Amino acid sequence: MPATDNQGSFLNRISIRRNQVVSMDVNHEQELEDLELFQKHVVDRFSDLVTTQPPPPTAADSSPDSALMPADTLLSIAWFRKLLDAFLCCEAEFKAVLIMGRDPTQFAKPPLDRLIPELLDRTVKALDVCNAITHGVELVCHWQKLAQIGVTALEQRPIGEGHVRRAKKSLNTLLTSMTFDDKENNSHGGKSTERSWSFGRRGGGASVNKDRTAGTFRSLSWTVAKSWSASKQIQAMSSNLVAPRGGEPTGLALPVYIMSTVLVFVMWALVAAIPCQERTGLATHFPVPRQLVWAQAMIGLQEKIGEEWKKKEKKGTCGLLEEIQRMEKVSQSLVDFADNFQFPAEAEKVEEVAAQVTELAEICQKMDELVPLQQQVREVFHRIVRSRAEVLDVLDQVGKMSTPVLY
Amino acid sequence: MADFASPIATYDCEQHVFAAAQHIVKALGASKNLNDDVRRLLADLDTHLSTMTIITETESRGTRELEEQLKFAQQKIMSLESNRAMIWASGHEVASEYLQAVYEIHRLSESLRSLLSNRSGKQKELLEQAHIVLQIAMERLEEELILILARNKQSFEPENMSFRSCEDDVVYEESIASNEDDLIEDTPQRDSSSTEPEERIIDLVHPEVISYIKSIADVMFASRYDQEFCHAFINFWKDELDEYFAVLRCDKLSIEDLLKMEWRCLNRKIKKWIRAMKFIIRVCLASEKRLFGQVLGEFGSVCSTCFVEATKGAMLCLLNFGEAMAISPLRPEKLLSLLDMYEVLADLLPDIDSLFSEDVGSFVRTEFHELLMRLGGTARATFMEFGNAVASNTSTNPFPGGGIHHLTKYVMNYIHPIFEYASTLNLLLGVQVGEEMVEPIGTVDWQNISLKSSCPVARHLRWLTSNLESSLDNKSRLYKDGSLKHIFMMNNIHYMVRKVQGSELAIFFGDEWIRDYTGKFQQHATSYERVTWNPVLCLLRDDGNLGKSILRERYRGFQAAFEEVYRNQAGWFIPDLELRKDLRISTSQKVIPAYRAFSAKSFPVIGDKYIKYSADDLEDHILNLFEGSSMSLHSTRKR
User: What is the three-class DSSP state of B297?
Assistant: First the structure.
């Protein structure tokens, strides 16, 4: 058999490491140490994510001081970049704890024989969530462009009705797009939906504008099947998430639980923040036991986000992303301004609008970070794929040791 | 269509003059004295000016004129605004005039803005007016753009794409009746590539309207409404791509669903995906790229940015299917499909690299490259996994009759189509474990190497058959009868040799392998004869003793042994006619002469009534062996 046929790269590494270890006790101590370190790092990373800042300002006409807010306000793009970084770090460390230097036969014994397949199942669901988020970010980029048109129009001086109309048109499209309901969206995703471009006010049919707006939403239907629901996905990921009990010999069960919780939390936060297909009841889908020490920071974050979600859900929010929320408010306020506009504008009004336009411009600028965020989401996707493969590899080795594969 | 040429040139010229004049005034203000030359030049200019209709003679006169021009252009635009017909549908002349009027409005608003230094109320009012009209015109043009696109998009008929949806199994109504669907079945047949849609660029919209679309782009860009234009244009094509997916019956499924899908269904989806990939990338995206170039080409990077924005979502959806396949559990039946997927990606790599060559497209390009690598890895792992699975395949019961084990059949049929994938597999198998996959295609001339029996595919095929052989060897140990063990091995190895000889794979295995394995099954045949017949023939050995009772005893012994062999072996099976014949003949050549020699000497002594079989009877029996059906040995004593 040629050398290339050797698949046991993991096992080789493992056996080398095990030979270096003098006795099982030392091995066990090492294991405990690794575990503690992993747990500590998870705590540290999530503590970093807790910001002392209050949630995003509630009034659109609040002072433009918001531009001075730190970059990593809770649920901002910058915050999500940090969150995904934290996830990637935790994940790398988790993999080391789980795979490197461990006896792979543990995978075949309780409790891992049940926990690992559950973990793998969760990761597949996470991949679909990542995909949905990637497409959701696309939609937000699209909003950014519409907002940018509003900024361009209202930055003109002297501000005239032509500019105001221009801004109003694009911001209205933006707001309609943002408040588009999931269910409606679904019906548009169907290929059976006959689009009637041949209408318009020239054709005397439905308004062009309405259909065009619908068109912007079709982009969401790129994601997955019509029946796919982000909310159900998160629910399924967390439903079998049970903390290992204190008395049991936990071993690797704890890090598996910790990593699963981190995974579900990250996916849950992304789904809450970024437009996604079907998110009803999201807030209730992810209970973390309160008493866990390592999870305190995460529980705090989860509570805050959960409250935000409950507040906004009834209004049919398009996502808790801080920039989206602010964009929506500022845009709404600018549309109100546009509705009551009369030429020439009063100096006072112009000044007020100028401040809002500056804020919108600043939000748009922050949204440039969506591109790297999207890339990071892809990185998370690819990382999960790779780790999954490595875990399967170990399972495969274990499987070969115990039962031969029959064809 | 030159009708839509922009009047921007005159406008530019005016600006030049304006700037130059300003410059002169400034220079004159700076100097106190003028020499003669300058004086003469200025005098010249003066006469020039006096012969021209002067706009700037007086401020108010200029404004009045601008006002008139604005009114004129505004009328043009507003008259069409109240008209409910499409501008384009009203004829080229109308459309051209409309566009001219829009340019005029834009020019006027620019002029007004530059005159606005003294902030006269009237000018402000006019500028405001101009902006409103411009906005009305822009909204109208955006609408017009979408209508033009929607009404003139060419509905394509994917003539050589026949798609069947997995769920209902109904032939797609609009497809030309497909022969290819039959190949989708599990036969390890490769789709013939001759029927694939070839690279071609189609007209996504009627060529007649492209210049009109371009003129809309031009005027919107000139009026700084480029964002609106791009937004509408991108969205339209995004939706169109979505529509193509529907036409191609390419359902969007989650990775989770794909991983759970039953193989036959998934296999059909793979075939569809492969065609969709080719069609979307080679035809749709290539055509879209051309159209974007025609419309937006002269606006620089905007063109590629728009193209990427319009296509990224569709590409991610297509790639996602591949990702799902790449992480799905390794199953041997997936190998060829994975290789097909890998090959189509490798094949499309240059297309992707050129479609998304710019920086903005690097996201798509990277994802594509990554997927290619991952699929390659999965295909390779599937092949290796298969080899290992063959080696570790165990049975608990001996295979009845010693015939061809289904594992042998499976393996040999499995590798049969590999020849066609040899260059791809060579590439994938040539990579060492843990090494990063090298960029495929073009780096090494695998085509050449693949012709040798030392290439990676050849090595792996021989490794696979040696795994098979040792697995068979293990299975043969389950037989209690040593002879049957040899028949089993002979049958199976013979089957392997014949399969290799009868296919293109022979060049990978090489003459040496064929000689080697031919020797092996012949050895098993010889061993069979030895193990079965030597003890039987031993009874006929002439030891010089001619005592009647001894001879009778030995003959009875022989007869019993022969019948025992026959009873045992009549149910054994050699499926290959040639091999069966050969073994019967060589057996009879071993047995019959010995029997004849014995009978010549002994029969007279033993006496006729003790003789059950003539030499011919025996031969008949031997020539009936290995049919696989137990026939009772009846006395064929005919005298």
Answer: helix
